[in-house]
């Protein structure tokens, strides 16, 4: 066996050779890596530990850099750590730290080797074992090695003690019962004089307090002493983090701690400590006015600094304090606004958050104007950040800060025309949502939708597809507010709509169909009105005053009872808009087209227009487009047959009335809790899973199927399954069927799951809204700051020209159920164990705090006289005999169970902070 090992050693490539070989590869690294891995698999089986360790070192490098799997070498790594050679041991521990996890099958085999290295006289071997335990420690490893870690916490070597204290965090997390053994000694380390030890202990408590700060309130005196006496900035930063968690839990503690924190702010010159003091004040001490004012003054120093990092920290601190003290942001509004033009993207984002935080009902128009101006000059990424912030803020709490919805809808139109806008989905959702919630804004919505639809240049912008979809839906749903419905049909069916995705074109066709129904219904009512003497009975106009206008449709004038309403008349779900004279265009004027009424020629021309535009789509490869086009064409053909020579048949009138009534149904927003309000039918048994399905259908042979999803543009999907019996002949033609399926997917890609591949459509039209044509985007930052400074001044609410319209809200005060994250069981066990230990420790030793330390020192002297064989039992003896310890542990569990079953004693269970601090 010696000669193969010798040959492997002589011709084995080192790690440097592997790295050089990877750098010189011209055709690719994969073949070379595969070859090296094969060499490693052969070399790692060698009995020579040097050869094995070099192979493991190379495998570890490939795993770290090129993600090569090394789980198969787990046992070989354990062999390396058992070597007496430190270099071999180091390579083995590195491999274990990087590749082992709780599911590694051989992880329990390293327990004895870790225990042996933790007891080693070589501090570097102890350090390797501690570092490995901190990375891969499982519940079993932490339980078995807790006595060794406990012993190392009092090591004479600072290097080892510091690492042992750091490992405690992992041990407590995996094995909470270790608190009963090690927590007392961990607290005693807070009294140490070595800054490295204190720093390590404070770091551990900082992490523990971040999970459950209430358990560590009894240690507030120790933390307060360190806050006052320590001169180590990093220790002070950790202590401040602890007090930021403890102060909200105990008001008396906050009063005591706030002054030392302010003293550190006045005295220190370290920016890191200064910022931590500021963050502690603005997060946990906002009720102390003097401390907040001092923190805001120090934030100002950060904001005016030339360093972008410090400026970012100042803006971040302002964003934390803004919800409770907005005046701090208003005092620094000039710097905040100028930061929107900063070169650092992080600074710009923080300043944007602060500007949005200043938005209120009184200044929303001015600030949105400033932000839109900045978005016109910004890069695409920051432009969309600005637009997203505007959309999010304005829609907050169901458009709470919006008073003039006509202005906001026009703002949405302006935002959608910005060249870099990529917020099509958000704008689409808000246009539809506002239309359903705010009835008074529907005329303006139709005007905005018409403006977007008639512009053919917008159809080539892929980011505007969703907005155009909303515009089409709005114009079709609220067509009664349109000045010229025929113009909308022409815009919806123009040839350039072929640039749109099929899902958007289906909405266009549906909206054109709605407008056609509206026009036909108006025409038929007009014809019916001329043929009847009593028009009000046919139209169904029943007002409170029984006002009758016999010739309202003919003359285009409203009845006398409706002439009093000067504003818009939104569609009421209980009232039919059959009287065309009450239709307004958005400026309070009646549509000229509808005043004249529809003629037979105009209706025939409209039908011909739809027939010509949708004819080619009846043979479309897209199933949804084809079906919608054929449905509309069939309806058009039916209507043309029923209205020949200026005559209207009863059948045509009935068909149009039925479809019009279906489309005239009012649509409203859906409550988030709507599904919960649906009663469960009687006899329906709902279970958490379908475990009984197998028992019910056990004897049913289900045929193998191929399922595909048919998705509609409205988010619904229909799953169709085609039964395909398996046979030998079909298995032979699987490749052919696969190619046919691929061809079908290529042709009807809309009805499959969406993929990342998108077809690029040609666009010969110039882009809409060329930035060069905008003259108002050349304003410099000073003018924008001046404008914003005037708009941000606190002022009384101005009287608006018209009151805020009614916004439909559902489920007032009811929010969607939020599933809270279930706390970790280990965290609960750890918190309970810490509370028990602190309650036991604080009560008997509060009068004489030095007794614990003197007892600990006496035990340490006795340990030094014992033989090495008895060290382990004596270390555990510091807290009592091991058997007694287990019995006490079981007894304490029994007592805690009895306390839980008995009446709750709040005074006994609440940690008390000693009065000498308060």
From TrEMBL:
One Gene Ontology CC term in the entry: AP-3 adaptor complex
GO biological process: intracellular protein transport; vesicle-mediated transport
Residue ranges of the TM segments: none
Entry's localization field: Endomembrane system; Golgi apparatus
Annotated region described as Disordered, given as residue ranges: 752-781, 844-918
Annotated Clathrin/coatomer adaptor adaptin-like N-terminal domain residues: 32-494
Source taxon at top rank: Eukaryota
Basic and acidic residues composition-biased segments: 865-884
Compositional bias (Basic residues): 852-864, 885-897
Keywords: Golgi apparatus, Membrane, Protein transport, Repeat, Transport
Keyword Glycosyltransferase on entry: no
InterPro entries: AP3_complex_dsu (IPR017105), ARM-like (IPR011989), ARM-type_fold (IPR016024), Clathrin/coatomer_adapt-like_N (IPR002553)
One Pfam assignment: Adaptin_N
PANTHER family hit by this protein: AP-3 COMPLEX SUBUNIT DELTA-1, DELTA ADAPTIN-RELATED
Assembly and binders: Adaptor protein complex 3 (AP-3) is a heterotetramer.
Its biological purpose: Part of the AP-3 complex, an adaptor-related complex which seems to be clathrin-associated. The complex is associated with the Golgi region as well as more peripheral structures. It facilitates the budding of vesicles from the Golgi membrane and may be directly involved in trafficking to the vacuole. It also function in maintaining the identity of lytic vacuoles and in regulating the transition between storage and lytic vacuoles.
Family: Belongs to the adaptor complexes large subunit family.
Name of the protein this chain belongs to: AP-3 complex subunit delta
Annotated source species: Manihot esculenta (Cassava)
């Amino acid at each position: 066996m010696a000669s193969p090992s010798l040959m492997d050693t002589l011709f084995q490539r080192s790690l440097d050779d592997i790295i050089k070989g990877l750098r010189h590869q011209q055709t690719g690294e994969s073949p070379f890596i595969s070859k090296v891995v094969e060499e490693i698999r052969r070399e790692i089986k060698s009995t020579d530990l040097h050869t094995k360790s070099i192979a493991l070192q190379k495998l570890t490098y490939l795993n770290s850099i090129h993600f090569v799997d090394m789980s198969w070498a787990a046992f070989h790594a354990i062999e390396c750590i058992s070597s007496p050679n430190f270099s071999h041991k180091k390579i083995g521990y590195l491999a274990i730290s990087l590749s082992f996890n709780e599911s590694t099958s051989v992880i329990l085999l390293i327990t004895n080797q870790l225990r042996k290295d933790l007891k080693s006289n070589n501090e570097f071997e102890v350090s390797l074992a501690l570092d490995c335990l901190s990375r891969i420690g499982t519940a079993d490893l932490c339980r078995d090695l807790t006595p060794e870690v406990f012993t190392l916490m009092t090591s004479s070597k600072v290097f080892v003690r510091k690492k042992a204290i750091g490992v405690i965090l992992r041990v407590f997390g995996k094995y909470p019962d270790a608190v009963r053994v090690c927590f007392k000694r961990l607290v005693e380390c807070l009294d140490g004089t070595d800054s490295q030890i204190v720093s390590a202990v404070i770091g551990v408590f900082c992490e523990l307090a971040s999970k459950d700060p209430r358990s560590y309130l009894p240690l507030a005196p120790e933390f307060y002493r360190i806050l006052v006496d320590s001169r180590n900035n990093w220790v002070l930063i950790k202590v401040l983090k602890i007090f930021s968690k403890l102060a909200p839990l105990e008001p008396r503690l906050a009063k005591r701690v706030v002054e030392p924190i302010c003293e550190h702010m006045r005295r220190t010159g370290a920016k890191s400590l200064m910022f931590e003091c500021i963050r502690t004040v603005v997060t946990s001490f906002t009720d102390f006015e003097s401390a907040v004012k001092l923190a805001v003054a120090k934030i100002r120093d950060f904001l005016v600094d030339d360093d972008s990092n410090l400026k970012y920290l100042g803006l971040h601190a302002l964003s934390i304090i803004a919800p409770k003290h907005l005046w701090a942001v208003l005092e620094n509004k000039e710097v905040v606004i100028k930061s929107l033009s900063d070169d650092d993207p992080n600074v710009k984002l923080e300043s944007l958050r602060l500007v949005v935080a200043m938005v209120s009902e009184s200044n929303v128009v001015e600030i949105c104007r400033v932000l839109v101006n900045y978005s016109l000059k910004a890069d695409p990424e920051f432009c969309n950040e600005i637009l997203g912030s505007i959309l999010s803020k304005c829609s907050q709490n169901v458009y709470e800060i919006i008073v003039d919805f006509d202005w906001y809808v026009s703002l949405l139109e302006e935002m959608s025309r910005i060249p870099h806008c990529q917020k099509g989905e958000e704008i689409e959702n808000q246009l539809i949502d506002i239309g359903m919630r705010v009835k008074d804004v529907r005329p303006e919505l139709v005007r905005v939708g018409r403006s977007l639809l008639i512009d053919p240049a917008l159809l080539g912008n892929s980011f505007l597809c969703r907005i155009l979809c909303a515009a089409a839906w709005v114009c079709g749903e609220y067509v009664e507010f349109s000045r010229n419905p025929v113009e909308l049909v022409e815009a919806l069916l123009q040839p350039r709509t072929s640039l749109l995705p099929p899902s958007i074109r289906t909405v266009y066709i549906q909206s054109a169909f709605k407008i056609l129904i509206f026009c036909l219904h108006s025409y038929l009512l007009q014809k019916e009105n001329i043929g009847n003497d009593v028009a009000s009975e046919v139209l169904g106009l029943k007002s409170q005053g029984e006002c009758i206008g016999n010739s309202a449709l003919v003359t285009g004038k409203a009845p006398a009872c409706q002439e009093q309403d000067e504003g818009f008349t939104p569609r009421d779900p209980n009232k039919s808009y059959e009287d065309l004279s009450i239709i307004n265009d958005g400026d309070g004027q009646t549509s000229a087209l509808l005043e004249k009424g529809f003629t037979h020629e105009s209706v025939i021309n409209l039908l011909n227009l739809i027939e010509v535009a949708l004819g080619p789509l009846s043979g479309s490869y897209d199933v949804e487009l084809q079906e919608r086009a054929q449905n509309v064409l069939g309806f058009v053909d039916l209507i043309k047959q029923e209205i020949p020579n200026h005559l209207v048949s009863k059948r045509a009138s009935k068909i149009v009335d039925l479809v019009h009534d279906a489309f005239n149904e009012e649509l409203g927003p859906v409550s988030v809790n709507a599904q919960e309000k649906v009663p469960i039918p009687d006899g329906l048994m709902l279970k958490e899973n379908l475990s009984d399905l197998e028992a019910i259908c056990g004897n049913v042979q289900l045929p193998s199927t191929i399922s595909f999803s048919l998705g509609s543009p409205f988010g619904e999907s229909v799953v169709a399954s085609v039964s395909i019996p398996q046979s030998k002949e079909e298995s032979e033609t699987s490749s052919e069927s696969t190619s046919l399926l691929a061809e079908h997917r290529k042709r009807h890609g809309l009805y499959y799951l969406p993929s990342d591949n998108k077809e690029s459509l040609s666009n010969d039209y110039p882009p809409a809204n060329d930035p060069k044509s905008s003259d108002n985007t050349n304003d410099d930052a000073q003018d924008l700051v001046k404008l914003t400074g005037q708009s941000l001044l606190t002022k009384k609410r101005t009287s608006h020209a018209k009151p805020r319209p009614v916004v439909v809200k559902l489920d007032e005060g009811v929010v969607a159920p939020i599933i809270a994250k279930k706390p970790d069981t280990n965290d609960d066990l750890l918190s309970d164990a810490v509370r028990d230990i602190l309650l036991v420790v604080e009560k008997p030793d509060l009068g004489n705090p030095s007794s614990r330390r003197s007892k600990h020192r006496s035990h340490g002297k006795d340990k030094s006289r014992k033989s090495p064989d008895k060290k382990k039992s004596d270390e555990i003896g510091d807290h009592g005999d091991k058997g007694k310890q287990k019995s006490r542990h079981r007894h304490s569990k029994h007592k805690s169970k009895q306390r839980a079953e008995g009446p709750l004693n709040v005074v006994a269970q609440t940690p008390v902070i000693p009065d000498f601090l308060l």
